[in-house]
Amino acid sequence: MYLVVLTLHNLLRWLVLLGAVYLLARLLPGLSGHRTWTRQDARAAQIYTGLMDTQLLVGLALYLGVSPYMQGILNNFGAALKGSETRFFAVEHVTGMLLAVAFAHAGNVLYKRQASDAGKFRSAALWFGLSLLCVLALIPWWRPLLRV
User: Fold this and answer.
1) How far apart are the C-alpha atoms of 69 and 118, rounded to whole Å?
2) What is the reported pTM?
3) 90, 73 in Cβ contact below 8 A?
4) Nearby residues of 103 by Cβ (< 8 Å), 6 or more positions away
5) Using an 8 Å Cβ cutoff, are 12 and 58 in contact?
6) Among 39, 6, 36, which Cα is nearest to 117's?
7) Is residue 28 within a helix (H) or strand (E), and if so which, with residue range?
8) How far apart are CA 130 and CA 23, in angstroms?
């Protein structure tokens, strides 16, 4: 079960990044102020946020129960904080990714409150950009994509 959930989590990271690229491709041209906000822009925001939510649920399953690695960390949390890799997964990765999901949701709510199309693009670019920065900074790039 662990390897299935871990593999799903690893593969989902690439879907999240693809969703972010698609979203940014929709948002960046709109920052010039010469484009109107469309349903496709809103859909791109929903896709990215939905992928982030799915990744969060799979990650929490690993963090709170499925991963024997995390169980060892959580059983001796104080000792885990002394190692850089264990601290990364025990605190930094989960906190940063929760923040990334919160930024994505903020982006999804706050762009809708803007009256102008330019405001929607600016708000969405800010919040989704912050979300993507958190994701890029806190993906464990040193870990292999698939484990066997």
Assistant:
1) 46
2) 0.92
3) yes
4) 127, 128, 130, 131, 134
5) yes
6) 36
7) none
8) 13
Contact predicate 116/30, CB 8 Å: no
Q: What is the pLDDT along the chain (148 residues), one digit of tens a residue?
A: 999 999 999 999 999 999 999 999 999 999 988 899 999 999 999 999 999 999 999 999 999 989 999 999 989 989 988 988 899 999 999 999 999 999 999 999 999 999 999 999 999 999 999 999 999 999 998 887 766 6
Distance of CA 9 to the CA centre of its chain: 11
Distance CA 11, CA 139 (A): 12
Distance CA 32, CA 17 (A): 24
DSSP 81: T
The residue assigned the tokens 């299935």 is 4
